[in-house]
């Protein structure tokens, strides 16, 4: 049996429902190529033990992902990725990640905490997206 390639984390302060956080993390992993077609997601039991959440929360997330065609449940075996969401070439991720890490270090040296960094990034991201549309 192969080990799951994704480890979930929950942020109780995010305001996002726990099941949606799980869904988003799987989508991100698929988009970044960290999770590939055929990779196994952690079992419901493993996620419940790791995060101390209700099994129905995990099941809801997995059902949502299955409805989107991103995973498939194999009874008695587990849940497996059935699609990828990689957009741009994965080769582009490395240099961009390096540049983003430099920017994050610079932001921290400037005294920004995680919430401030996230707020700055998201508002800049949304503004740029709106400008691209216009």
TrEMBL record:
A GO MF label: DNA binding
Coiled-coil regions listed: none
Pfam families from the UniProt entry: GntR
Keywords from the named record: DNA-binding, Transcription, Transcription regulation
Keyword Protein transport (UniProt): no
SUPFAM superfamilies in UniProt: Winged helix' DNA-binding domain
Keyword DNA-binding in annotation: yes
Lineage: superkingdom: Bacteria
InterPro entries: Tscrpt_reg_HTH_GntR, WH-like_DNA-bd_sf, WH_DNA-bd_sf
HTH gntR-type domain mapped to chain residues: 16-84
Name of the protein: GntR family transcriptional regulator
Protein encoded by which gene: ytrA
């Amino acid at each position: 049996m192969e080990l799951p390639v994704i480890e979930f984390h929950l942020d109780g302060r995010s305001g996002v429902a726990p099941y949606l956080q799980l869904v988003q993390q799987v989508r991100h992993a698929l988009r970044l190529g960290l999770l590939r077609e055929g990779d196994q997601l952690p079992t419901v039991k493993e996620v419940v033990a790791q995060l101390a959440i209700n099994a129905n929360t995990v099941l809801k997330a997995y059902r949502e992902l299955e409805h989107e065609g991103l995973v498939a449940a194999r009874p008695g075996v587990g849940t497996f990725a059935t699609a990828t969401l990689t957009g741009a070439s994965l080769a582009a991720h490395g240099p961009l990640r390096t540049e983003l890490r430099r920017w994050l270090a610079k932001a921290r040296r400037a005294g920004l905490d995680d919430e401030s960094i996230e707020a700055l990034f998201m508002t800049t991201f949304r503004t740029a997206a709106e400008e691209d549309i216009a």
